[in-house]
Design goal:
Length: 205
């Protein structure tokens, strides 16, 4: 019986690949349910990390400023540097948040980590579009993602039609995609380790 189950597979890893291929054929594909929970993880972590970054920035600004005049002069001189640093911090926050979101989706779905990461990103885009349409129809107060720093959102007032706005929009769209895909692959990799342990046990290794 054991020889029949391992026919065509000469090593534990190749046997695992055969089993995974059969399971993936039946249970693989993009899972929007898992991806939704991944997106919730990503958006929640975006809020937490953004608030933390803001608190750190305010604390640093307060400790480096002696009076109101110094604050005004320093803000004028360093506005470009602050913008660059803010963009870098935003990119890091989005990458980490969507990496974790992709990881959650990949762990839940078990297969096709890249697809799960893309699905997490798609949830963000879909919800941003829906809220932008709702804001255009019922009022900008319904575009709730715009109040979350770093959350992918679509401005309905044309504020993104500037060089800085387009760069910010590109960061908010591309960085989450890369992070979610890498996170989805990492989440899926955990299950391959579990599968290998099962195959090794079955083979008596």
């Amino acid at each position: 019986m054991a020889s029949e189950n391992t026919a065509g597979a000469s090593t534990p890893k190749s046997r695992r690949n055969d089993v995974v291929a059969a399971e993936k054929e039946q249970f693989g594909g993009m899972k929007f349910g898992s991806a939704f929970f991944g997106w919730l993880t990503a958006i929640g972590l975006t809020v937490i990390l953004s608030a933390l970054a803001t608190a750190i920035g305010v604390g640093i600004g307060a400790s480096n400023t002696s009076n109101a005049n110094d604050a005004a002069n320093q803000a004028t001189e360093n506005v470009q540097t602050i913008s660059i640093v803010s963009g870098i911090v935003l990119a890091i926050i989005l990458f980490v948040a969507y990496y974790c979101g992709g990881y959650v989706a990949g762990r839940m779905a078990r297969f096709d980590g890249v697809k799960q990461g893309i699905a997490v990103w798609l949830w963000g885009i879909i919800i941003a579009i829906v809220l932008a349409i709702l804001a255009a129809v019922a009022g900008n107060q319904f575009n709730v993602l715009s109040s979350i720093k770093g959350a992918p959102s679509i401005p309905v007032d044309g504020s993104a039609l500037t060089a800085g706005g387009l760069i910010g929009l590109a960061i908010a769209i591309l960085i989450p995609l890369v992070g979610a895909i890498l996170g989805g692959k990492a989440g899926m990799r955990f299950h391959r380790k579990v599968d290998q342990v099962g195959i090794n046990h079955q083979a008596g290794i």
